Structure prediction request, 280 residues.
Amino acid sequence: MKIAVASGKGGTGKTLVSTNLFSVLKDSAFLDCDVEEPNGHIFLKPNETKIIPVDVKTPVVDEAKCSHCGKCAQVCNFNAILSAKQKVLVFPELCHSCGSCSYFCPENAISEQSREIGNIKVDTNKHIYTGRLNIGEPMAPPVIKLLKNCITKNYKDIVLDAPPGTSCPVVETIAGVDYVVLVTEATPFGLNDLKLAVEVVKKTNIPVGVVVNKTFEEETLIAKYCESENIPVLLNIPHDNWIASEYSKGNLITSNEEYKNMFIKLREDIQNDLKGRSLC
Prediction:
């Protein structure tokens, strides 16, 4: 299974869930798709054996050939190129590397050059893949896309730690996965952001389940919403000072047998939910 662990906002415990779930799986891979601020390595402690650069194509204009017809700017949906009377300006950070400007240029005045926007660090022994976007770069999806394409082995499971929120990087991460686990907190703020995340996942028609982090006694706020939306609550993680202490040290909580069994059951419940849906 390809399991994406996401959340409607940061700080809910998404990385806590993804790293500890991965730690109890066999013959599996971990993809840190939160490329703007990856932190899975803090807990999984990989030894990077390979670094793969992430390059994108950006246009270069040959002013000697350019007739300043403006066709390149007309076909660019992202305003990454501006054709003035005497000069063409290119904004690389806005470019989506679609190639339209060079394809439609009547003078063949536009070529493309590679520009590195990030990299992927791989631990081939632990099967941990960490994407990282260079500081100052605005677009994470190209890094996430290449990160997902790095997987060439048929793993039993792949855990993808998604970026927080509901924007393009999240959509790129969950595209093509088998199941999305949304992590939230039992607060009104957590419920609000969970609703936003659920709406995004629903549009992809990917099965979704919820993990509630830092719960006190019997949790009802999130449970009532999930029941109304027919979304299973897969796991309630208690508000435990020991978990907070271990997390602050960069340790996995599956060193505790009770929590280890909890995450083993989480994987089983995800598989059972998928089987149940296939029978409907």
About this structure: The chain has two domains: 2-46+126-279, 57-115. The two ends are 19 Å apart (CA to CA).
